[in-house]
Amino acid sequence: DSGVTQTPKHLITATGQRVTLRCSPRSGDLSVYWYQQSLDQGLQFLIQYYNGEERAKGNILERFSAQQFPDLHSELNLSSLELGDSALYFCASSGTASRASGGVWNEQFFGPGTRLTVL
Amino acid sequence: TQLLEQSPQFLSIQEGENLTVYCNSSSVFSSLQWYRQEPGEGPVLLVTVVTGGEVKKLKRLTFQFGDARKDSSLHITAAQPGDTGLYLCAGGATSGTYKYIFGTGTRLKVLA
């Protein structure tokens, strides 16, 4: 158990609809990342938040938006859903970055994911 | 755009065999991580390498970061069925965003 929770686990909806995915990071982690994983495109970085503010953006569509709340949980909103949006959506959290030998990194802990099916 | 390509994409081997998975890019990364993912679950971090040329060992798994910090390899000795899964490498951005780019993945199946 990574300590990151995601709800719901499964979501089935129709094209054109809007859904909200929720993520609670590990206790104490300030950063939250959202990823999309589909069979043909691997794990794609969508967006990162740090302590409520957007920190980095990846391949996130304009129909998608996210936010991180004061209690640090995050929500990913997907609207005008299309068949191609069907995928696994993962949230990850990380704590303080580590530094050594000129490198900087953090460890990301992933939640169990939300499987979205758009019919 | 930073891209990470993994090879091979699929690998099916017998228990006890050795294997190497490669992760290559034309970009420099501040760090390189390897994850293993099992069906229906999120990726789990195995290791982080930071220094060019760094080698880390985790039981039967050996990870190496290329000297130029553009590539990495994962070597598994005497593979076991429990090693079955999707192996992902992830490169850390050199800027301060701590954004990670994930590789295309290697799906490993170890047969008993």
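Chain B is about 0% helix and 55% strand.
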